[in-house]
Amino acid sequence: MLVLASASPRRKELLSLLVKEFEVLPADIDETPMYQENAEDYVVRMAIEKASAAALKYRQQAGFDMSAIFIASDTSVVIDGRILGKPASLEDSLSMLRLLSGRSHKVITSLCFSNLQHEHIATKLVVSDVLFREISNVEIEQYWKTGEPQDKAGSYAVQGLGAIFVRSISGSYSAVVGLPLYETAQLLAQFGIHSLEEMSHE
């Protein structure tokens, strides 16, 4: 049994490209960065904590599967060493997108695979560079009204209307969306699940 420790419809959609059956079990954790914690350490810690919290929640269900594998991921937008979270207001969104406008930033995505006992943990870190064109305040305000940026790190969705701001991506597009498919397939294989081979047995 695979368990995706995320409420993100984007991660669910991406994982469904690799495996047919999995359970979705998001778990709430404190996502506050630690004092002077760098972005790479932060996103890895978030993925590990999400997997751990989901495993704990899963154990409380009746008839849980002892062989369950938990998949968690975290994505942060980083510029000038600053981690941009999800905007709480239009003012937040304006601040973030002004900072990204006309510049390159990093999208750092982590993956954590864990068994139920949390004794077998595998992590991966994927860093992609995204270059934005110049964005006007009017565009940011109109974009905010669409509702798209409101639950997105860095206040944009590369797989949605936010793509109109993106001049180029160097790295993994699926990682920028929220789940790096290449690295996810690699970790699935480590845990004995080979995506394309599984499909061939259908």
TrEMBL record:
**Pfam families linked:** Maf
MF terms from GO for this chain are: hydrolase activity
Needed cofactors: a divalent metal cation
Q: Which CDD domains match?
A: Maf (cd00555)
Q: Where is this site: Important for substrate specificity?
A: R10, T75, Q159
Q: Extract the InterPro entries matched here.
A: ITPase-like_fam, Maf-like
The top EC class is: hydrolase
Q: Which residues form the active site?
A: D74 (proton acceptor)
Q: Does the keyword Hydrolase apply?
A: yes
> Any idea of its EC number?
3.6.1.9
Q: Where in the cell is it found?
A: Cytoplasm
Q: What are the UniProt keywords, alphabetically?
A: Cytoplasm, Hydrolase, Nucleotide metabolism
Give me the reactions it catalyses.
Answer: UTP + H2O = UMP + diphosphate + H(+); dTTP + H2O = dTMP + diphosphate + H(+)
What task does this protein carry out? Nucleoside triphosphate pyrophosphatase that hydrolyzes dTTP and UTP. May have a dual role in cell division arrest and in preventing the incorporation of modified nucleotides into cellular nucleic acids.
Family of the protein in this entry: Belongs to the Maf family. YhdE subfamily.
Q: What is this protein called?
A: dTTP/UTP pyrophosphatase
